[in-house]
Write a structure and sequence with these properties.
Length: 210
């Protein structure tokens, strides 16, 4: 979704393999038939590392359903859809995006909904051998996003109480929100399931900036 923007989506699989990558991830697979994605992976000897559950109405600014009260049925449908795609692609982990808290709203009901939905998702995916991930996002790129940092993520993971819920540690978002990455990374190794990297600011190559 971020690399190889100058070529068609399906050509990017080959470009990744040519650069020596053994696995790929992208935001969402749902615009494509799983069979076509599987063929692209197989053709280049690639593993599907990760993708996100459907986020709601992305074009309208939605960034996840897991924490949105009243959207539980839609979230469960997204869980089932992601499970089908993950099984078809041999993908062993998925990210459940939390969602946006409206300006001025009390975040507590949103976190309560988040915990309940994640408990359902973690159980659903555990039965299929798929890990469930949550990721703090920074408040500059995604204003109002419920999950903002590692301490909150640990609180949520503890509240869910599942051994199938992990932290997706994106150094780009967490450098912006928290800094002190070496310390927090070491502290949270027990819950980290996946790592993403980019330079700060600008989200460029990790050799640029912080």
């Amino acid at each position: 979704s971020f690399l190889f923007q100058d070529i068609d989506f399906f050509e990017r699989f080959g470009a990744a393999a040519d650069c020596g990558f053994q696995a790929v991830e992208y935001l969402f697979p749902y615009a494509y038939a799983p069979e076509k994605l599987k063929d692209a992976l197989s053709a280049h000897g690639l593993t599907q590392a990760l993708f996100n559950l459907a986020p709601g109405d992305w074009d309208a600014g939605e960034r996840g359903l897991a924490a949105l009260p009243g959207r539980q049925a839609e979230f469960r449908a997204a869980v089932a859809q992601a499970g089908d795609y993950a099984e078809a692609l041999g993908c062993k982990q998925v990210h459940a995006m939390a969602g946006i808290v409206p300006d001025g709203a009390d975040p507590a009901p949103f976190e309560k909904c988040y915990v309940a939905n994640l408990r359902y998702a973690a159980d659903y995916f555990a039965a299929r051998g798929i890990r469930t991930l949550i990721e703090p996002l920074n408040s500059f790129d995604v204003p109002g996003y419920l999950l903002k940092g590692t301490q909150q993520a640990r609180r949520v993971i503890d509240a869910v109480g599942s051994d199938n819920l992990y932290l997706q540690y994106d150094v780009y978002h967490l450098q912006i929100m928290e800094g002190n990455l070496a310390h927090s990374f070491e502290r949270d190794l027990d819950i980290i399931g996946h790592v993403q990297i980019a330079g700060v600011p600008g989200r460029f190559e990790p050799s640029v900036g912080e």
